[in-house]
Task: inverse folding
């Protein structure tokens, strides 16, 4: 965030053609833009305060001239505390499109961002990254804006300036603006379009935040949120289809259940109390209208029955069994129990037994439920918000009547960087911005052993070393193979003495189940752990 009270953006001739374009609104509507990550028509607002947006629904009036007193009064009309703000667009924008415009002589024409006109009226959305600064009338009003903190609004996503000379100078007045805007053809964009956009952005943002620190999985997620099929088996089609604008429906039991859950959760009232049983009823009702194969219908019913019992507190929630149950049903249950994406993402996997795919599904469902504007900043980065806003602007430019079309910036990329300690840092970058950073720590000695073959080779040798060093006698046994032997018991020392003729064969067997159990509960000294890692990583 920066403030620039001394900047002189406006030359001596008010309303000159070189002035930057402004979107004039009030402090409350500014919060909606900051939470969404883009400037949008008023139909997309959770709570809208009257301004210029309602004059031409679906459009964003951009004016070049200083803000006339009549415009100031219009954006404050609903609430005296709704002081005006002016969002100044950058003048180096790489965007195309001719949109309805009002020339300085009062004539109506079509023009682009570089043309010498007074007003532009595009429809669609404009990324917040296009905003150079937000102007306030006084330092007191700027301080009032900055004094309040919100869990879903990043105040420092834009810079700020106190520019009193911008407000109140004679410029294009409300009568001329209204005459121009009301004569424009209606925009095809609806409140439903904007709502769907926010829900989809919420799902994409949440699944990015939930992505594991695994290169392949992170690349698949990055492709998914860019609206490209992942092209790998990291995410099954029942999950990816719901996050792609043209995803091919999956007709498996998982596919039907997940798609139906998405359909229902996208329609939930985000301001209402969370009633999971009522939502489950709606999902079952929606499923009954689908054409399901008998086997899929039976399987879905079998999976939803225990979910209902858990929601009714008739049975306890226990960690999932990886070998049974629909993954989509597991993802749905996680969201029923924790309907906020940040709580789903932070849920300890040892408590749930959920897989990476099931966590991703749960994160996506929670994102569809709450949307992007309500998502906590814990799950969001400036880079990710800018990426999603750019994708939204591109998507709306395909259906809007008169859009400003952003230039393509290129695909997001996952960059790997190995550290001295062996940790792998994974960074997702797009357009020079960091969207996400995850650190993949190298597996510990215990993790390496747990995944190793303990029946032979270096895995067996490392396990025997651990058993000897830590005295895990219950995890190993020595087998002696000989033709003849004698056993003597010493009552005084309470020991056994085995005498074997010849040269017997000795073999140490590891009780793999018991050994892995102790690995998960007992600590391994650092020096021993280092030796084990060295043994397991050495070439045979």
Result:
């Amino acid at each position: 965030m920066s403030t620039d009270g001394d900047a002189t953006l406006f030359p001596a001739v008010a309303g000159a053609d070189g002035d930057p374009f402004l979107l004039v609104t009030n402090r409350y509507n500014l919060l909606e833009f900051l939470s969404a990550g883009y400037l949008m028509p008023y139909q997309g607002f959770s709570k809208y305060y009257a301004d210029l947006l309602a004059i031409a629904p679906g459009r964003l009036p951009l004016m070049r001239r200083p803000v006339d007193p009549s415009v100031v009064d219009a954006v404050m009309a609903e609430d005296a505390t709704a002081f005006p703000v002016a969002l100044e667009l950058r003048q180096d924008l790489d965007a195309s499109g001719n949109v309805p415009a009002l020339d300085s002589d009062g004539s109506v024409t079509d023009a682009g961002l570089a043309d010498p006109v007074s007003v532009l009226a595009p429809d669609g959305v404009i990324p917040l990254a296009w905003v150079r600064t937000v102007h306030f009338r006084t330092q007191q009003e700027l301080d009032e804006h900055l004094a309040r903190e919100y869990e879903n609004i990043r105040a420092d996503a834009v810079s700020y300036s106190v520019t009193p000379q911008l407000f109140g100078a004679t410029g294009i007045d409300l009568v001329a603006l209204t005459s121009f805007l009301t004569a424009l053809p209606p925009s095809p964009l609806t409140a439903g379009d904007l709502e769907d956009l926010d829900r989809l952005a919420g799902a994409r943002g949440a699944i990015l935040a939930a992505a594991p620190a695994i290169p392949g999985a992170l690349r698949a997620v990055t492709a998914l949120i860019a609206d490209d099929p992942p092209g790998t088996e990291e995410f099954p089609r029942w999950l990816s289809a719901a996050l792609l604008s043209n995803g091919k429906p999956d007709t498996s039991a998982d596919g039907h259940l997940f798609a139906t859950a998405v359909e229902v959760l996208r329609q939930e009232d985000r301001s209402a109390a969370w009633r999971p049983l009522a939502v489950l009823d709606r999902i079952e009702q929606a499923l009954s209208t689908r054409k399901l194969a008998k086997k899929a219908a039976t399987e879905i019913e079998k999976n939803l029955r225990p979910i209902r019992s858990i929601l009714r507190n008739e049975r306890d929630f226990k960690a999932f069994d990886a070998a049974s149950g629909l993954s989509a049903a597991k993802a749905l249950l996680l969201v029923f129990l924790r309907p906020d994406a940040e709580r789903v993402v932070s849920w300890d996997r040892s408590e749930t037994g959920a897989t990476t795919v099931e966590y991703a599904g749960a994160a996506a469902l929670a994102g569809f439920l709450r949307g992007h504007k309500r998502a906590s900043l814990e799950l969001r980065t400036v880079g990710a918000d800018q990426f999603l806003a750019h994708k939204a602007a591109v998507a709306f430019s395909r259906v809007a009547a008169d859009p400003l079309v952003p230039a393509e910036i290129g695909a997001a990329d996952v960059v790997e960087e190995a550290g001295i300690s062996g940790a792998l840092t994974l960074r997702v970058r797009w357009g020079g911005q960091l969207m996400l950073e995850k650190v993949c720590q190298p597996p510990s000695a215990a993790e390496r052993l747990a995944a190793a073959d303990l029946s032979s080779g270096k895995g067996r040798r490392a396990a025997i070393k651990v058993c000897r060093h830590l005295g895990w006698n219950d995890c190993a046994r020595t087998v002696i193979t000989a033709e003849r032997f004698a056993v003597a018991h010493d009552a005084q020392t309470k020991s056994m003495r085995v005498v074997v003729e010849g040269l017997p064969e000795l073999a140490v067997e590891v009780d793999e189940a018991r050994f892995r159990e102790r690995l998960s509960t007992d600590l391994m000294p650092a020096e021993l752990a280092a030796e084990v890692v060295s043994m397991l990583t050495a070439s045979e």
Observations:
- The longest helix spans residues 191-209.
- The two ends are 57 Å apart (CA to CA).
- Residues 445-537 form one domain.
